[in-house]
């Protein structure tokens, strides 16, 4: 009877070790990407910083672009739990809110809060895409995921009945997608020195004026 118990224990222990290695790799990669950029970060350096072998890094992440995408996903979520963004509490709170204006306010307040961590990672992928086909695929995936999220947000706003007459779901989605882009953060916060709070308020006001009566 001890054999099966030991195997279950060993499997659980290996799984926990793999998860811990993944966390350490993501933490190391996040710091190095922000410090040295995408091109300046090498996988062996990530391994050394994380305290694991290079083989362990490649076992968890097929290439550097895949690692960048994983860093982005964890940064957006705030953790490495296997819970989709659509199922997170802040999305549920927005969906439960009956007012379209309040939904927009809540969403862009959240975006302003996570933006300083999230947008620099997106911008790394955008800039790397010109020279690295794998990074270009990751950048395209980031854009597509944002478009999908804004499609759902658009439908949620339309369900309130408060969207300006004449605007289609696609119109609202495209406005949301445009203002959600990292380019706005780059221009206003990184280049012009706006605070994240001022940036978030600007997005709230702009989107509200664009889509609501």
Automatic annotation (TrEMBL):
It comes from the Bacteria. PROSITE patterns: HTH_TETR_2 (PS50977). Residues 42-61 bind DNA. The keyword DNA-binding applies. Pfam families: TetR_N (PF00440). Residues 19-79 form the HTH tetR-type domain. Keywords: DNA-binding, Transcription, Transcription regulation. PANTHER family: HTH-TYPE TRANSCRIPTIONAL REGULATOR BETI, HTH-TYPE TRANSCRIPTIONAL REGULATOR RUTR. This is Helix-turn-helix domain-containing protein. It comes from Amycolatopsis nalaikhensis.
